[in-house]
UniProtKB/TrEMBL annotation:
Protein's name in the database: phosphoglycolate phosphatase
Rubrerythrin diiron-binding domain sequence ranges: 222-352
Pathway terms, separated by semicolons: Organic acid metabolism; glycolate biosynthesis; glycolate from 2-phosphoglycolate: step 1/1
Any one GO BP annotation for this protein: DNA repair
One GO cellular component, as annotated: cytosol
Protein's organism: Geobacter metallireducens (strain ATCC 53774 / DSM 7210 / GS-15)
Taxonomic superkingdom: Bacteria
Length: 363
């Protein structure tokens, strides 16, 4: 990554992992939507989920909570005033010396900045709790423009404020569509980090390498999107497995989650290999098998929520198959086609199992 002068970090989900903070944000947002719309918190939760799914269908991109709220006619200023009053991040956060030391090392080589959809007060409290509040030159929050990322106009203003061209910036975030896609399209380098452990590997990507041609950049963009899809799918199946009380449902959703996690890890390995040396990696197929049904399990029927989950799962797998088919069509490398075909075939098997189960239940 020759020519990098500034690193621009997302905050929540990137510099720390905390389900507790995430739950507080979700609960506060649901409460606000419920109050504005005159509905129950549970109805607000479903409305937020459905709206996010509709935006994804319309745009082909994952939508941030901020964009979902805007779609619902929510005033972001009022929403963040509620966040400031209700959210207490400190009990869920601890100082991670590994992250502090990483940022100190990076700060000796690059200008470090934060760009977040969070507000100024909560961002300050979170960074103080993490022990990283003195590591960044500039902190860009939702309050600077009230235009949530991704937003081209805001990004262009950030480039002006930090005095850097896009080609001299590396953006770091946990959500590709929200944090990284637009910066990459504008010419920035990106680093996709879903966990703190992944963040700690960022230094391995910083040594100079050969200039990236347009074809390689397009392929890396597509692989990064596939990574994001696999992680979102894994998260969905994990939630479905935890939610259902049905043994058969748990068995199937657990198998689906494990195989999607394996896809996610293999695509991450592929991304790093292509980025560093232009090499595809071998994938011989999943080693995870579907556990046999337990005694008497087939007599237990899925409930309504499980059927809805299966319907969503069928659509997820169809989109995954189409995405890998499209990637194969764009890939000239024989090893690359072989890997993508193996991934596509496993998504096809997922769809077969899900459809078979769904049809059996529906009669």
């Amino acid at each position: 990554m020759s020519g990098i002068r500034a690193l621009v970090f997302d905050l929540d989900g990137t510099l720390y992992d905390s389900e507790g903070v995430g739950r507080q944000i979700d609960a506060s947002a649901m409460g606000h939507v419920a109050a504005v719309r005159g509905i129950s918190p549970e109805e607000a939760r479903l409305l937020i989920r459905e709206t996010r799914e509709k935006i994804a269908v319309r745009t082909g991109r994952t939508a941030s909570l901020s964009h979902v709220c805007l779609e619902l006619g929510i005033d972001l200023r009022e929403l963040h005033r509620r966040f400031e009053a209700e959210i207490e991040p400190e009990p869920f956060l601890t100082r991670d010396e590994r992250v502090v030391e990483l940022l100190e090392r990076l700060g000796e080589r690059f200008d470090l900045h934060i760009y977040t959809n969070n507000n100024r007060l909560l961002s300050s409290r979170i960074m103080t709790a993490l022990g990283v509040d003195g590591c960044f030159r500039r902190i860009f929050t939702i309050e600077d423009s009230w235009r949530p990322k991704p937003d081209r106009q805001v990004l262009e203003e950030i480039f002006r404020e930090i005095g850097q061209e896009p080609s001299h910036c590396l953006f770091v975030g946990d959500r590709y569509d929200i944090d990284l896609r637009l910066p990459r399209e504008l010419g920035c380098r990106v680093f996709h980090s879903r966990t703190v452990d992944e963040l700690l590997t960022i230094e391995t990507t910083l040594p100079s390498g050969a200039p990236m041609n347009d074809q390689t950049k397009e392929t890396l963009d597509a692989i990064m999107r596939a990574i994001e899809i696999e992680k979102e799918t894994f998260d969905f199946y994990t939630r479905a497995e935890r939610k259902t009380f049905n043994p058969e449902g748990k068995r199937i959703f657990r198998w689906l989650a494990k195989t999607e996690e394996q896809h996610y890890l293999k695509l991450n390995e592929l991304y790093q290999s292509l980025h560093e040396g232009g090499r595809w990696v071998f994938y011989g197929g999943s080693t995870i098998t579907l556990d046999p049904a337990g005694s008497g399990e087939k007599q237990v029927g899925f409930d309504t929520d499980d059927l809805q989950a299966l319907e969503i799962a069928m659509e997820i797998e169809k989109k995954g198959i189409a995405y890998f088919d499209d990637l194969m069509a764009k890939t000239a490398d024989a090893d690359g086609k072989g890997m993508l075909k193996a991934l596509r075939d496993e998504e096809t098997e997922h769809l077969r199992v899900i459809t078979e189960k769904y049809n059996a239940i529906k009669g």
